[in-house]
Each structure stands twice: as structure tokens, then as C-alpha cells.
Amino acid sequence: xxxxxxxxxxxxxxxxxxxxxxxxxxxxxxxxxxxxxxxxxxxxxxxxxxxxxxxxxxxxxxxxxxxxxxxxxxxxxxxxxxxxxxxxxxxxxxxxxxxxxxxxxxxxxxxxxxxxxxxxxxxxxxxxxxxxxxxxxxxxxxxxxxxxxxxxxxxxxxxxxxxxxxxxxxxxxxxxxxxxxxxxxxxxxxxxxxxxxxxxxxxxxxxxxxxxxxxxxxxxxxxxxxxxxxxxxxxxxxxxxxxxxxxxxxxxxxxxxxxxxxxxxxxxxxxxxxxxxxxxxxxxxxxxxxxxxxxxxxxxxxxxxxxxxxxxxxxxxxxxxxxxxxxxxxxxxxxxxxxxxxxxxxxxxxxxxxxxxxxxxxxxxxxxxxxxxxxxxxxxxxxxxxxxxxxxxxxxxxxxxxxxxxxxxxxxxxxxxxxxxxxxxxxxxxxxxxxxxxxxxxxxxxx
Length: 447
Description:
Blueprint: H1 40-43, H2 47-50, H3 64-80, E1 85-89, H4 93-99, E2 111-115, E3 121-125, H5 129-138, E4 146-150, H6 156-165, E5 173-176, H7 182-191, E6 196-199, H8 201-208, H9 213-234, H10 243-257, E7 264-267, E8 288-293, E9 296-297, E10 300-301, E11 304-309, H11 315-334, H12 341-357, E12 369-371, E13 378-382, E14 401-404, E15 407-410, E16 414-417, E17 420-424, E18 429-431
Parallel strand pairs: 1-5, 3-4, 5-6
Antiparallel strand pairs: 1-2, 2-3, 7-8, 8-11, 9-10, 12-13, 14-17, 15-16, 17-18
Helix pairs in contact: 3-8, 6-7, 9-10, 11-12
């Protein structure tokens, strides 16, 4: 999603938007009879959006001591996985997670190196040293971290290798962040031929997958804000609005709640395309709408989908909705500590197959869900083989947060997806937000 300068996962479709509808709070959605000029969304703030209150004061920033605890956890996982140091380069969420460092070096290598048993260090261009030290001072490493610099005509990879060698790790095992550019990974390997290079994912994901109480607090707040925005925007919808009109509404709503957020809107037959279409779309009486995405709170993201109608749903739509809702509920009931992620997907998928929309991925065309935290998509995943990542059959742990988003997509007609974010608890699982009760009253359970 395009939050904090990150490219939207669906932005390439040009369908980034939200929805709107006119109704009383908690009531069914009804369209106004008159068509709306395309400039209407920009000229006045609808009552439901104006009524939103700023929630940003409820968000607590993460402290240096919290990040230091994460580094200590990483060191424990390094020892368990026989990794001597992890290397986080350029734009990765993990450098923010551990050290509150945003490394935007582009083609220039910036790398944070966290050894298991030695002093951490940062590699950066020589002309950026002052900025690097200022950034370090704000985080858990402070003045303890060493800064190693390289001039523009020098190899940053040799500089990094020297930092490892000075710590007795020239022939050690270095775990590289999974999002590192190939040119950086290859450069590090070539500059230190005795160094064994492996994936840092067992350490980075091993830490980030299990959320602590503060992270869960941020995720709950992000989910609450998103659902409030969705409801307010839905209550502002009028026949004739385009996706551009409702994009302006959703932006206005997120400004009111005080968080950066977005939502993609797809209408009618385009709801049968799980991630939407770039084609122009306009609301009409009886339209079915799919609203998806979320917002950021202290670096943590929500991801919610609501499918609903502007007016009355058809019998077929209601039938499909009930099946999808049952599948989502089946996933919540199945999830819990020690349960393989694949089995949660299977439980939801079986509901849809038994209802006649199978086999397999025939109409429920994607996995059940993805891990969510600082990145909208992160480890682990609700699907067999865990997207063929570092662990093919992970078991859920208390503190895991994943999306629970079953769907049925009927090409040329419509699609229905319901998505809420699921927290694995000590005794089972729960959703951060109330499930949608119906297509005509999607926010009726909010109270």
C-alpha cells in the first residue's frame, strides 16, 4: 500500500479508491436517487466523514528500549540458527523494526550489520556520515554503533567485509535480508570469499512474526480506524460517483482520523477480479462494491475488505455472502497455537468447496491470507507450502497476525471477499474487527 512512501500493491491498477453510501449509522445502505456531478466529492465534506474524530493521539511510539529488546531476541535466534550476523541493506522494514533506521540509499549501499556477539555497525557513503550518526543517535544503538564509510570510488562491499573481519567474522555466516538487491548480495559475497552467505529470514521473520502487546495495540488501532473510515465513506456514497470521486472521500476520511491510509474500490463485474481493474467504474443503483486496503499506525498496517451493495442484494449475492462468511468463521475456529497455517486455509477452503464453488482454487482463487505487521504482506501465510518460503509448514504461534480473507469470484458477474485481521491468542484466535453481517448492512456489528 502507498503509505510512508511505499508503492501500493494494487497501485499499478490505478484503482486506488474508497467507497461511499447514504444511510443511517449501522443501517442498510441506500443510494440517493439523483446522479452526482464528478466534482461533488471535492466540494463538500459529507456529514459522516465530518463526524469522524482524530484517533492519532491514541498511538504510542516505540521506544529505543523496545527496539533493543528486539535486537536481543534476534541475537538469540542467530545463535539458534548458527548465524553470526545479519545484514539489513537499504529500504527494508527490518532496519526500522530493529533500529529505527530508514535506509534509502538507492544504488548506494547503506547496510546495518547486527552481529550475534560483537558490536553493531553501519556502512554508508562517506558524505552521508553526519546524517547516519544523527539517525543512529535516535535509536537503540545510539553512539555505541560504529559507522564505516566508503568514498564514491571505493567498494562498499569491501568496507562491509572489513567490518566483519575486524569482528573475527571473515569466515563466518552472514544472514542477508530477503529484500536485499541482488547486486548488493552478490557484491557482499564476492568481496568476502570466505564468508558464508545465507538468508536472514529465520531471524528477521522469526522476530517480526510474533507481535508483542504494543505492536498488537497499534494493529488494533489501525484496524479500528480503517473500519470507521469505511463506514463513514460508505454512508457518503451516491449514484454516479466514480472511483476518483470516492478516492477523494477516503483520503478526506483518513485525514479526519489522523492516519495515512488508502482503499481500492471495484464495482459490479470488476469485483470478480480479486485485485481489481484499471477500467473506469461508476456507481449505480444496485451496484455491488468491494473496498480493500488499510492505514498505518506507528508503522503497522491494517488490511480490511468489505463487500456490500448500494441498494438491494440479489438472492445469489446473499447466498455467496453467507458461504464466504462461513469460510471466514471456519478459519477463526481452526486457528490457534501449534496449528499448521496450511490447515487454516484448508478449513476455510473446504467450506467453499462443499458449497459447490470448488474444487481447490476454482472460485476461491487465492490463499486465505498473509501475515501482516510493518509490511502489509509478511511471514507467515495461510496456504499450503507457505509460499515456498523459508519454512514450508510453519505452525501458528501466539502473537501471529494474519489476514483472514476468503472470497468467491464469479467471472462476468461479481465477487465477494470478506477480510479481517486475525490475531493468534494463547488459546485460539480472534479478529480485530467485527465480521460483516450482511451485504446490505456491512457495518451493522460495529455498535
